[in-house]
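Hi all, a correction to my earlier message: I attached the wrong file for DsbA family protein. Here's the right sequence:
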Amino acid sequence: MSENTPANGKTPVDFWFDPLCPWAWMTSRWMLEVEKVRDVEVRWHVMSLAVLNEDKLDELPEEYRDMLANQAWGPVRVVVAAQQLHGDDVVGPLYTALGTRFHNNGEGPTPEAVAAALKDVGLPAGLAEYAGKDTYDTELRASHKEGIDKVGQEVGTPVIAVPGADGEQVAFFGPVVTPAPKGEEAAKLWDGTLLVASIPGFYEIKRTRTQGPIFD
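and the right structure:
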């Protein structure tokens, strides 16, 4: 599925996200900048922090467990329902609407914010009802598995995958950035990320985060 080249000839960039994650949101805004300066096309897919962590809840802080139980399932279920009922093309715009309200506007992942995001992109209000239903959990788990299988279980969201030189996908977690680079800085980070990710045996560059997400 993900390896197919778009009809427009642009390089496909598959991006897995959970709308709840502010760091995935930052990376996604960077990817939209990359689309402006490199010949790529982002294809949006869901993954789930709730699914990712369901087998290790006992190891997590109580506050994070509560967040997963009470907030994590709803938004991603709504996105999957929208995709299943209205097609892949609605995923990116709906993610933008949700993320803008959750993160930039500070509304958080509330039912009211989800309902408003659906209205923002012209999707039926009834989709909000899927937040509390497992109707499309099979599809949600399949999308999550497709992304996480490319990088392994010890990462989070986002996951990005691009075609490699040998035709196989090169996938990685991140990059984690704040604020989202723009213009030539976005291009430089993209080129550098692809360079290191393409090296066999390369696994990780990391440093301590000294500030939280800057939504601009």
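Sorry for the mix-up. The domain at 11-198 is CATH 3.40.30.10 (Glutaredoxin).
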